[in-house]
Structure formats: structure tokens, C-alpha cells
Write a structure and sequence with these properties.
The protein starts with a helix and ends in a 23-residue tail after the last helix. Strand 1 and strand 2 form a beta hairpin. It has 26 helices and 2 strands. The protein has a two-stranded antiparallel ribbon. It has about 675 residues and is mainly α. One of its GO terms (biological process) is cell differentiation. InterPro entries: EXOC3/Sec6, EXOC3/Sec6_C. Belongs to the SEC6 family.
Length: about 675
């Protein structure tokens, strides 16, 4: 018991009983038991109860062995008091020897609490020793035992009082308190209980000091985490502020325990585990209480985020805490059944929210079209917020857990597909009914630009957002591709209408001046190019590819009209020269304008070569090569081209056509050319 008193040298006074630290990082300190409560717990015995006349202290009729034990324990307490008061003599205070003779003549007032010095003086004068003769009443023994218990409680309060504010205590004083705690824990295990010296074997065992310290830690955790967080200016809900407060408080407190208390505490006390278990239990209790109420969608999401992600990863697995918590079994903050219920609620809420928000966004956008509102301009392009809304309203939820993200992904993809189909129908209706509106073409362009959702040229697209397999992505984005195609058709309809009579001039003049005709066609297209400048660059290129395709397709269609038959090689070579020159002009213009359609570069020059050649075998080679480049080049198209060669025999023409019966091994074309050209 000597260790239990050594650290009391120079203590300023009694401390309340508790075991939890205050953490200076926090704006508030941990609540502590008031001094009045501590004194009240000691005031049950008066001064006379605590320090009765020791000459009257006698043994009962118990055997001499029990009496001997009491004598030894009284001496032990005297030694502990000696350590307890060592060095506490104040200026002007009489020494212990001076007060020995004065104690009997100067009794304390009954209401005054005995000081530690007075208790020590009584013990040193032998008042706790059993006299050699005489008998003490049972009442007197009870009073003496009460005095010992009061002194024991004082010691306990002082020890646990130091541990109450461990971060504020001097390291040496804290080590002394911990040594006393360890000594008392050893005695508790040896004696079977946490009672004071002299307690009878049959007395009810009080909680051990170590358990009292752990209870104090749990109380501090409850007080720290249950404080109401202050309102902030960031618009967080009360539940969000509570989660943030509890998480930040727990992390900061536990890191303080690791950095400042662990080096001082004995390893067998497991100070980090004790604090972590208490804070974890309180965190779990707070969340369990929260789930008893009906939570909004935002709070359900935040609760799952904390339970499944932030708490285990950012707090327990933080760099400072993870090594200290290995082997500490905490479990989850909520039972698995409760987590599954919350996840099911979250998934249902998320799907319903996405459906509602996307439907509302589409309704607002379509109303702008029909009300002839001009779209926004952003960096010189027609812009709509619809694409941004859709990406924002369909987030994957792997940020909670990968498993939950995997569960919600197919549900939200289904909602996304539903929305895109609705979007396409709304846009097609606008194309049909609103042609006369002033901002019609601008809104068409804005909606084509919305197809950045499909991923082409987009910084943040659905393709990047969802990372879907190619087959599923193709099916999902089909409505957007249709919308874009219909938009291109609308924008190009008037241009292609203007070009139609110019292309007819090739056959009407029997190719008399093809170069001049084509120059007029190219000039007409160039004049209309500024109309498409507000398209996003990727879609402007795609539209120019459509223009390029239209020029080549219509030119070939005029060659296939069977209205031109050239019987001499010279005539055929002259026409081939015109076709070759026209092909070069088309390619140059479209490439300079921004068309990426390099796959069209060989379409006209190879046909010109077929027209120029006279040797059937050489023609067969060109046809075979052409069929590999354009697998939709059919016998009908070949027959129309060969019809131009009036000097080619029918047998040679048949032999040349048979080349297309041979499987060239070419795959189906990804882009159509000849399948778009009808032959008579």
C-alpha cells in the first residue's frame, strides 16, 4: 500500500472521482464531478468518526489472529499516510511532533472534515493499534471501519482525480497515480474485491479502481460525443453536423491518447483500447438512437457513408490509430440487419429521386424549346444544362462501398435508359412541331451538343461515369445517337435540298462541264458552313463528315444513272480524268473544312480507274480491291459503272461481275456508302 500514497506529496487538494481525460484540442473541457459532491461523499462521517480516540479502540472477541491482521493494516495505513503527506507542511503550520500533545486538548469541530495531516497524526500516535487490554463494542468497531473506508475513499478519489485530467497532470504525478492504481489492482485480485484495508471477507466487493477508471472513460466519451454541435454556414443538416462532430472529436481524442497517454500508462492497462472501446460504444449508441427516427434521403446517405466508409477508413484506419488498434475487436457501428435495411431504403430513395429529378429537368428544358427561348452560349457554342443535370443526378454510389455501388448501378442505368428514351421522344416532337420558331436551329444545335453525354469529346461523360461494357453502352446510348442523327438531318436538310438541282446538272448536260458544276456545289456548301459553327467541335466534324459523304454519294449516284454510254477508249479516259479531278476537289475542300472521313478518299478515284482501264483482267483487279474497301459495293452498282463502257462485251462484263462472287474476307462495313445509293 506504500505506493498508493507516495504520489500524494504536494497535491493541492482532493479531486473528484472519475477516469476520463480532458483534451485541450476541443473547445470545451470534459465535465467533472463538483467539489461539493466530493465533499458530500465524505461528510457522512464527522471529524470524530474519522479520527476517534484511539485509546478507546479495542478488539472484539475475535481470535488473536484476526486482531493481529488489523494491527498490521493500521501500521500499513500509517506508512501510506507518511508518504501521502511528505513535504506538505505549510508555512506557519506546527510540526507533527508539536501537535501530538495538542490533539487531545484541541478537538476539531464535528462539522470540519479531518485533514490528511490529522489522519496521519492519529495513526502515528497509535490510535489505530489494538490496545493490550479491554474490549471494544461492536459499534466502536463499525465506527473505526467507517473511518478506514473514508480514508480509503479519499485515496481513491485522489488517485482517480489525477487520472480524471491526465493530459493536464504532470507526467511524474501521473506515473505515481498509475503505480498506485496498479498496486490496488494487484491487491484487488489478491483479495477478491476492491474494498479498503480491514474489510471483512464476507463484505460485498466494491468495483475495482481500474474498473472505476474505465467507467470514467466511458462517461467522458458519452459527454464528449453527445454535445450538440454548433450550426455552421455550409447548410449541413443537424444529422450531418452530428456525424462530423462525433467523428472529428473521436479521432482527435484518440490521437491525443496515443501520442500523450500511451507512453505513460502501463501496457497491461491497454489505455488506447479502453478509450477506443468506450468511444466506439458511444458512437454506436448515438447512431442506433438516430435510426429510430425517420431519416430523409440525405441523412440516410450520410449515415451509411459514415458507418460503411468514413468511420472504418478515415478514423479507425487512419495512420496514427491503425497500428494501435490492431487486435481490438470493435465490430460495426450498427448491426448488419440494420445496415441492410438502411441500404434498401437508400437504394429505393435514390432511384425515386433520380427519376423525379431527370423528369423535372427534361420538362423544364423542353418548355424552353417550345417557348422559343434562345439557348445559352458558352465558349461560342450553344449550351444546355440538361447534360450536366443528368450526370449530376445519376452518380454511382461506390463512394459508400463498392458493394452498394454494384447494387445501385443497374438500377440507375435502367432509370437513365428510361430518361434517354423520353428525351429522344421529346426532341423528335420538337423537330416536327416547331420548325417556324426563330430559335429553332439554335435549340437543335444545343440538343446535339447535349450528346456529349455519350462520351465523344466530353470531359465527364456517362461512359466515364458508369464504365459500362461496350454492348450495354451501345444499347444505352442508342437514343442519343438517334437524337444526334435526327438533329444533323434537320440542320442539313435545306443545304442538301439546295444541292439537289446542281447534282442533276451532271446528267442533264451529259457530263459536258463537270468541273464547273462541282465548283458551284462546293461554293454552295462553303457559304453554309458558318451555320454550324456553334456546334461542339467534335459534332461539327461529324456533321462535316456527313456533308463529305453526301457529296461523294450523290456524285456516284449520277454516274450510276446509265444515261451516259461512251464507246471509245478516248471518251472513257476523258471522263475518268474529270472524275479524278472532281474527286480531288471534293477531298481537298472537305478535309480543309474539317471532315475526318479519310475512308471516302478512294471511292471516286478507283471508279475513275475502272472507267479508264480497257483490259478486263486489269478491271477485275481494281474491282476486287474496291470490294475490300467498300464491301457494300454490289453487282448492281458495278453493272451501272460498266454500262458507261460501251465497248465492253457482255461476256467480259459478266466475267468482271463474277469477281464479286468471291469472298474477299472483308467484314461488314462500319459505315455505309453504296447501300445508300439506289441503282435502276
Amino acid at each position: 500500500m506504500l505506493k498508493m500514497l507516495t504520489f500524494f506529496q504536494g497535491l493541492p487538494g482532493q479531486q473528484p472521482v472519475s477516469g476520463a481525460p480532458d483534451f485541450p484540442r476541443s473547445a470545451q473541457k470534459l465535465p467533472s464531478t463538483s467539489e461539493a459532491e466530493s465533499e458530500a461523499s465524505m461528510s457522512e462521517a464527522s471529524s470524530e468518526d474519522l479520527v476517534p480516540s484511539l485509546e478507546a479502540e479495542v478488539a472484539t472477541d475475535r481470535d488473536e489472529e484476526e486482531a493481529g491482521k488489523k494491527k498490521k493494516k493500521s501500521k500499513g495505513l500509517a506508512t501510506m499516510i507518511s508518504v501521502f503527506t511528505k513535504g506538505r507542511k505549510k508555512k506557519g503550520q506546527p510540526s507533527l511532533s508539536e501537535t501530538e500533545g495538542e490533539s487531545e486538548s484541541s478537538p476539531r469541530p464535528p462539522a470540519q472534515l479531518p485533514t490528511v495531516e490529522e489522519l496521519k497524526a492519529d495513526l502515528e500516535r497509535g490510535r489505530c493499534r489494538r490496545p493490550r487490554a479491554g474490549r471494544a463494542s461492536e459499534e466502536e468497531l463499525v465506527r473505526r471501519q467507517s473511518k478506514v473506508e473514508a480514508l480509503y475513499a479519499l485515496l481513491r478519489d485522489q488517485v482517480l482525480g489525477q487520472l480524471r485530467r491526465p493530459l493536464e497532470a504532470e507526467p511524474e504525478r501521473l506515473r505515481q497515480a498509475l503505480a498506485v492504481l496498479a498496486e490496488q489492482e494487484r491487491q484487488d485480485h489478491a483479495g477478491g474485491g476492491g474494498g479498503p484495508p480491514g474489510a471483512r471477507a464476507g463484505d460485498h466487493a466494491a468495483p475495482g479502481w481500474l474498473q472505476l477508471w474505465r467507467d470514467g472513460v466511458a462517461q467522458a466519451a458519452a459527454e464528449r460525443l453527445s454535445r450538440r454541435p454548433a450550426a455552421d454556414a455550409e447548410g449541413r443538416t443537424e444529422a450531418e453536423r452530428t456525424f462530423l462532430h462525433m467523428g472529428r472529436t473521436m479521432k482527435e481524442d484518440l490521437e491525443a491518447v496515443v501520442e500523450r497517454l500511451k507512453p505513460l500508462f502501463p501496457a497491461d492497462i491497454r489505455v488506447v483500447a479502453a478509450y477506443d472501446e468506450s468511444y466506439h460504444a458511444e458512437f454506436a449508441s448515438q447512431l442506433s438512437a438516430l435510426t429510430q427516427f425517420e431519416l430523409c434521403q440525405r441523412d440516410t446517405y450520410m449515415l451509411l457513408l459514415w458507418v460503411q466508409n468514413l468511420y472504418p477508413n478515415d478514423i479507425l484506419n487512419s495512420p496514427k490509430l491503425a497500428p494501435e488498434l490492431q487486435g481490438v475487436r470493435l465490430g460495426t457501428l450498427l448491426p448488419p440487419t440494420q445496415i441492410r435495411l438502411l441500404e434498401a431504403t437508400f437504394l429505393s430513395n435514390e432511384v425515386a429521386s433520380v427519376r423525379e429529378l431527370t423528369a423535372r429537368a427534361l420538362e423544364l428544358e423542353s418548355n424552353r424549346w417550345t417557348n422559343d427561348e434562345a439557348p445559352q452560349r458558352l465558349d461560342g457554342h450553344c449550351h444546355s444544362e440538361l447534360a450536366i443535370d443528368i450526370i449530376q443526378h445519376t452518380p454511382p454510389c461506390s463512394i459508400i462501398t463498392l458493394d452498394l455501388g454494384a447494387q445501385i448501378k443497374p438500377l440507375l442505368l435502367e432509370e437513365l435508359a428510361r430518361f434517354l428514351r423520353s428525351y429522344q421522344r421529346a426532341f423528335d416532337g420538337f423537330l416536327e412541331r416547331c420548325r417556324q420558331l426563330r430559335n429553332y436551329r439554335a435549340n437543335v444545335i444545343a440538343n446535339i451538343n447535349n450528346c456529349l453525354l455519350s462520351g465523344k469529346g466530353a470531359g465527364t461523360s456517362l461512359e466515364q461515369q458508369w464504365q459500362t461494357p461496350p454492348d450495354l453502352r451501345s444499347s444505352l446510348l442508342r437514343p442519343l445517337n438517334e437524337l444526334k442523327s435526327h438533329g444533323f438531318d434537320t440542320l442539313l436538310q435545306s443545304l442538301f435540298g439546295d444541292l439537289k438541282p446542281l447534282f442533276k446538272r451532271f446528267t442533264q448536260t451529259r457530263w459536258a462541264a463537270p468541273q464547273q458544276t462541282l465548283e458551284e456545289i462546293v461554293s454552295a456548301v462553303a457559304e453554309r458552313m458558318p451555320e454550324f459553327s456553334e456546334l461542339q467541335d467534335c459534332f461539327r466534324e461529324e456533321l462535316l463528315e456527313a456533308v463529305h459523304l453526301h457529296l461523294v454519294k450523290e456524285y456516284i449516284a449520277r454516274l450510276c444513272k446509265r444515261r451516259l454510254v461512251l464507246k471509245t477508249a478516248e471518251q472513257q479516259q476523258q471522263l475518268a480524268g474529270h472524275v479524278q479531278a472532281n474527286a480531288q476537289l471534293i477531298q481537298q475542300f472537305c478535309t480543309q473544312s474539317g471532315s475526318p472521313a479519310t475512308w471516302l478518299h478512294d471511292a471516286l478515284p478507283t471508279l475513275a480507274e475502272i472507267i479508264r482501264l480497257q483490259d478486263p483482267s486489269a478491271i477485275k483487279i481494281e474491282v476486287a480491291t474496291y470490294a475490300t474497301l467498300y464491301p457494300d459495293f454490289s453487282k448492281g452498282h458495278l453493272s451501272a459503272i460498266l454500262a458507261i463502257k460501251g465497248n465492253l462485251s457482255s461476256s467480259d462484263a459478266k466475267s468482271i461481275r463474277s469477281i464479286l462472287d468471291i469472298n474477299t474476307g472483308a467484314h461488314e462495313p462500319s459505315k455505309a456508302l453504296f447501300s445508300l445509293i439506289k441503282v435502276g
